[in-house]
Predict the 3D structure of the following.
Amino acid sequence: MNREIEFGKTLEEVKHRARAQQNFITKKEVEEAFRTLSLSDEQMEMVYDYLRQNRIGVDEPADADAFLQEEERSYLDSYLEALEAIPAVTEGEREAITLSAMAGDADAVRRLTELMLPEVPQIAKLYTGQGVSLEDLIGEGNVALTLGVTMLGALEHADEAQGMLGKMMMDAMEDCIAENAAAKESDQKIADKVNKVADAANALQEEMRRKVTVEELMEESGFSRKAIEDAVRVSGGKIEAVAAEEES
């Protein structure tokens, strides 16, 4: 395997392991994961820095509340207060409910979902500060939980349920963060393209002392007709230096 690919794969595995451990991992665990790559001390420090930047504690627990905004803290307090109404159960009762849910009992599925609800905000806090609000993260976790409790029939033992459901919630939140980041990147690319077209159109307008046609801008800037028309459309008509087709 290519060394860079192996490094990236190992880094993601370490990050996922830390998420499963409540955003905590030891240096010994990290060093063992990267052992076959024989990284230098400087490279290992870069790995530790990357993990810390992703809200993961290395050799000491990360503060899950540190990146919550005031509005999010208020929402979390209200959310957790509402969950206090859920009746508690003993470990034995929880196992029995889980086994019944695994067998497809609808009441047990509903009850297990309720019992797992407090886990959602605790997991969501691990992903705050990465571009998605706590409320949206909790929403994604709740959807994953609701789906996951209907899929427990594939498990052999009741003690596997919490791990499976936790992973599904984490995966859903990570997907949400990734999709949000991709959307922002796409929006930025579009904005950059619009700005480039606008700058070129404004410069040409100043030179010609009138609005310019799409054809003139194409010839001067090298932009395609589609790129120019798309930029004008996306800008909502704010690229005023380009004359409307009917005016040309």
Remarks:
- The chain has three domains: 3-58, 70-180, 184-247.
- The mean pLDDT is 89.
- Strands lie at 24-25, 57-58.
- The two ends are 58 Å apart (CA to CA).
